[in-house]
Amino acid sequence: MMNKETIVEADVNDAEEITSLTKISKAFWGYDDKQIKKWEKDLTMTKDYIIENKVYKITCGNDLKGYYSYIEKEDKVVELDNIFLHPDSIGKGYGSVLMNDFLKKMKKSHFEKIQLYAEPKAEKFYIKFGFKTVSRIKSDIPNRFLPVMELNIK
Question: Coil, strand or helix: which one is 102?
Fold first, then answer.
């Protein structure tokens, strides 16, 4: 599976590589180039975003395997904004390593609830970690709805 993977906080110099990984990861789920272009803004990791929020990357050697990021929404609520893996790393345990790292950090924090908007094809991944789907919102693709999920951590 994995060897010597490391999770560290990303810095502004990682923005371009994280953006590239995000786009190829999203395309892995069957979205075409036209749709990826439409989502350009949402799939771009800016230096300002990295400065203003928490972004953690997982690497193995010099290879970026994936990352997650979160945003403090309210006093006791945090949003898991992104969790993406390089397509070559999907199904090899890196997603679970990232999620467990995130949950460990959150359980030690003052936050009481995690919220997220899931990629529909990733809903089962989040359920595996105890998240519950509380609603669904329409996306910009007809007949595609994003699961709105929550997990109480305290």
Answer: helix
The answer to whether the CB of 94 falls within 8 A of the CB of 66 is yes
Locus of tokens 């904004």: 81
* 3-state percent breakdown (helix, strand, coil) of the chain, nearest 5: 35, 35, 30
C-alpha distances in Å from residue 144, one per residue of 29, 147, 148 = 13, 10, 13
Rounded to whole angstroms, what are the CA distances from 31 to 14, 38, 46, 125, 146?
A: 24, 11, 22, 19, 15
Which strands sit side by side in the sheet containing 63-74, from one edge to the other? 5-9, 54-60, 63-74, 77-85, 113-117, 145-152, 132-138
Rounded to two decimals, what is the model's pTM?
0.94
Residues 90/44, Cβ–Cβ less than 8 Å? no
On the 0-12 / 13-18 / 19+ scale of CB atoms within 10 A, 70 is: buried
Separation of alpha carbons 130 and 107, rounded Å: 14
The pLDDT assigned to 3 comes to 64
- 91-128: pLDDT as tens digits: 999 999 999 999 999 999 999 999 999 999 999 999 99
